[in-house]
Amino acid sequence: MKCIYCGQDKKPSREHIISAAVLDLFPECYLSIDMTKGIVHEADPVIKDVCSDCNSKIAYIDSYAKDFIGAYFLKKYSYDENPILRYDYTLLQKVLLKYAYNDLRAHRRDVSFFDQEIRNYILDEANCVPMSNIIIMAGVAVNRTPAPDFLYGNLKLQMIESPMLFDETMVDFIDYNEWSFKLREYPKRLEMPDLLMSYAFRFNSGQFLLLCFEKLKTDIEQEKIVLECSYPYAVLNETGEAELPLCTSYLNYHHLGMVCLKWDPAFELSYMAQRANENNEALQELQQKIDQIEKQIVKEHPRKYVNSS
Ligand SMILES: [Zn+2]
């Protein structure tokens, strides 16, 4: 096998698409659902095109991912909380790039963005200069819909290629005073001509957008301003600190690939749904039962790779 990092003909090793160390944080998520292929895997999703030398070289990314996600996103946040995130910008870029690259290869998709420079960047722990043609945005995911998480299964860890960043609101008011509205069937998507690859990630209560642009073509600083003004996400940067806004609304919480504009009335509907459901005892009881079931699942499906990276 030709290793995709060093290019040498070597024996393959098991590279986890999402770090085993991160999967260890969520033992209740013991199944992986591949929506594109329509397959459910009980084993951890892995790809076998990385040699063991390169695999151990990139293990530093897995350790960071585990510490970072473990520190911030194991807990749920309430809708009025804006946690302060402290992060290593370069390492976070590498985490998301590595996951996206793994996922693209596993699905035999276009990996042309990952040229030698990007592959070396991922491989080289000592390289601490972030890529300037990459934007990362982060927000907090809070369920304010009437549909509890468990209705959709255990979707705490998700990644999706080419999320839709809408350029129009999903909700269109017909009469604001009468509170009558309709949903736009196909809201326009934001056009970013120099965007080569993009991904959305959910790590339980944290949501991230990875936007990768052509080198030198886009005015990236301008792009960051437009994105931060338009979407309820913080644009991360080398300061290593950001206050995370609530990025999910009533309409897109259960749909990671749909990114609403900040001013979408969907957020107002979320507030109403939140108020309608916060004292719903039946729902709270059901949630408690689900929490118990999750604990049982953890007992029944112990992680095989505990403490691995
Ligand atoms: Zn290699």
Structure characterization notes:
- This protein is of the alpha+beta class.
- The protein has one domain.
- It is 30% helix and 22% strand.
- A five-stranded antiparallel β-sheet has the order 7-11-12-6-13, with helices on both faces. Strands 1-4 form a two-stranded antiparallel ribbon. Strands 2-3 form a two-stranded antiparallel ribbon.
- Helix 3 crosses helix 4.
- The model has no long low-confidence stretch (mean pLDDT 91).
SSE order and pairing:
Blueprint: E1 12-16, H1 20-23, E2 32-34, E3 39-41, E4 46-51, H2 52-57, H3 59-72, E5 84-86, H4 89-106, H5 116-123, E6 134-140, E7 157-161, E8 164-165, E9 171-175, E10 180-183, E11 195-203, E12 206-213, H6 220-230, E13 234-235, E14 241-243, E15 258-259, H7 266-277, H8 281-300
Parallel strand pairs: 8-15
Antiparallel strand pairs: 1-4, 2-3, 5-14, 6-12, 6-13, 7-11, 9-10, 11-12
Bound molecules: zinc ion (ZN).
The site of zinc ion has 8 residues, from helix 2.
Quick recap of the structure?
With 309 residues, the protein is an alpha+beta fold.
